[in-house]
Amino acid sequence: MDAITILPAGQAPKFIAVVTDPDQVGAAPPVRVRLVWLGQHRVPGIEAGIQLGFEGMVCTVDGMPTIYNPRYEILSQTEA
After folding, report:
1. What's the rounded Cα separation, in Å, for the pair 5 and 15?
2. Which end of the chain is more exposed for a tag (fewer CB within 10 A), N or C?
3. What is the pTM of this model?
4. Please, which domain of life does this record's source organism belong to (predicted)?
5. With contact defined as beta carbons under 8 Å apart, do 19 and 58 qualify?
6. Are the CB atoms for 76 and 51 separated by under 8 Å?
7. Rounded CA gap, 65 and 33, in Å?
8. d(CA 25, CA 23)
9. Nearest to 78 by CA among 54, 45, 55
10. Confidence class of residue 60 from pLDDT cuts 50, 70 and 90?
């Protein structure tokens, strides 16, 4: 998980995370996927640095592969 975007409370709820495949070290450019959960201000357990398995229908939004409301599984968490 590279980045998480939390929108202000006045906007329609949407939680956005950008994921990069860690197994693609040295690949140019690395594969990045935007995950969007509609209707959510937060998704429990989704934080920067976790390893995440996910699946869903992929579409391209602003040139980036995007999955709306993906099914996901937290594979591991970083120790704080």
Report:
1. 6
2. C
3. 0.74
4. Bacteria
5. no
6. yes
7. 5
8. 6
9. 45
10. very high
Smallest Cα–Cα separation from 15: which of 66, 69, 64? 69
Share of the chain above pLDDT 90, in %: 25
Kindly list the domain boundaries of the chain, sorted by start residue. 1-14+23-63
Q: Which of 28, 27, 16, 25 is nearest to 66 (CA)?
A: 16
| Residue whose pair of structure tokens reads 């950008």 in the numeric block | 18
Ramachandran assignment for 79, one of left (phi > 0), alpha (psi -120 to 50 degrees), beta (any other): beta
3-state secondary structure of 67: strand
Look up residue 67 and give its amino acid. I
3-state helix, strand, coil in the chain (%, to 5): 5, 50, 50
